[in-house]
Design a protein that fits this description.
- This protein has four helices and 13 strands.
- It is globular and about 55 Å long.
- The strands form four sheets. Strands 2-1-5-8-9-4-3 form a seven-stranded antiparallel beta sheet. Strands 6-7 form a two-stranded antiparallel ribbon.
- It is mostly beta strands.
- The chain is 13% helix and 40% strand.
- It has a single domain, classed as Pnp Oxidase, Chain A.
- The protein binds flavin mononucleotide.
- Flavin mononucleotide binds next to strand 2, strand 4, helix 2 and helix 3.
């Protein structure tokens, strides 16, 4: 079955939908949702965000060169959708209309979101053009996980009930863990 080009990208899904915080030149925090993201390097640890240049978040990434990636659970789906639909450009108070609480990060200016289960504090290392988005590569300079969801060197994503976006209003949560025994 062939697909329209707009649907092709929906076939590749996996990484946790996250709320990315950034700060503008006045130091005001913004938050927006990202489901197109990926690990890109073990050493140093790096992650990439695919960011449309239309996002206010993008201007903040360019000016401040820092971001904090916060992985939220299904319990915060309303907030993930809210900050993922409202832009700071039209609504600079968008964070105040959520249940999300900001707390100081340890190494970067963009604050963490207290309600998250994973926090990655990142410094922008490179920006690459790619179609209608930019690939923003960030080096992880501090990382933390909610200890409840870390066991035997593994993040218990299925227990944490984090969100995997499959497009539009739909997400996968939890699921069956399969371990290769070969
Ligand atoms: C679940 C979800 C996932 C999203 N993923 C991305 C993404 O990967 N890249 C992107 O540029 N925008 C993504 N967006 C859109 C931005 O979050 C949205 O445009 C937001 O309003 C930008 O806010 P800002 O202009 O204040 O930065 C997503 C939105 C939702 C709801």
């Amino acid at each position: 079955m062939e697909l329209d080009s707009k649907d092709v990208i929906r076939l590749i899904q996996a990484h946790p939908t996250s709320v990315v915080t950034t700060v503008n030149e006045e130091g005001v925090c913004n938050a927006a949702s990202f489901s197109w993201l990926s690990p890109v390097s073990f050493d140093p640890p790096m992650v990439a965000l695919m960011v449309s240049p239309e996002r206010y978040t993008y201007s903040n990434l360019v000016s401040s060169q820092e971001f904090t990636l916060n992985v939220l659970t299904k319990h915060f789906l309303d907030d993930v959708m809210y900050v993922g639909k409202e832009s700071f450009k039209n609504n600079p108070n968008k964070l105040e209309e959520t249940d999300l609480t900001l707390e100081k990060s340890s190494e970067v200016d963009p604050p963490r979101i207290q309600e998250a289960v994973v926090w990655l504090e990142c410094v922008v290392d490179a920006v690459h053009e790619a179609g209608d988005h930019l690939i923003v590569v960030g080096e992880v300079v501090a990382a933390e996980v909610d200890g409840e969801f870390w066991k035997d060197g593994r993040f218990l994503a299925e227990e944490a009930e984090i969100l995997h976006h499959i497009g539009g209003r739909k997400f996968l949560v939890g699921g069956n863990l399969v371990e290769w025994e070969g």
